[in-house]
Amino acid sequence: MESKTVNINRNSVTVFRILLSLIFIVASINHLFNIEKVISKINQARLKELAHIFGNPEFSVVASGVVMLIAGIALMIGFKTKYAALILALVLLPITITTQVGQMSTIGPLFKNVAIFGGLIFFIMNNFNNHKTIKA
Fold this sequence. Notes:
Blueprint: E1 5-7, H1 10-33, H2 35-44, H3 48-51, H4 57-77, H5 81-99, H6 107-125, E2 133-135
Antiparallel strand pairs: 1-2
Helix pairs in contact: 1-4, 2-4, 4-5, 5-6
């Protein structure tokens, strides 16, 4: 496969990283301060049984809230960006499967999460700490 160099404006990557992180920070606040509402949403989902694989839903909601907050802040400030994005993707995957897959009423949020995965994959696959260009 031919290697190409793609120039990317560093400021655009920073803006992208910050904006992408905000959804996780906001979601973490919801998980930590509206635990019962999040659990209720899980219990209404078609694949709610999958949520119980991870144990007590209250523990899972709080744990995911803490992880999203820490990794979201790390992503926002550009600290260990690749790892923060990977952690967020690993948290987002079971949330997406549990609450949005298999329900027509959540088709919009499902594809929102697909787009978010795309953003996270961008930061997982690229290292912006030492590079001004990306090999594509």
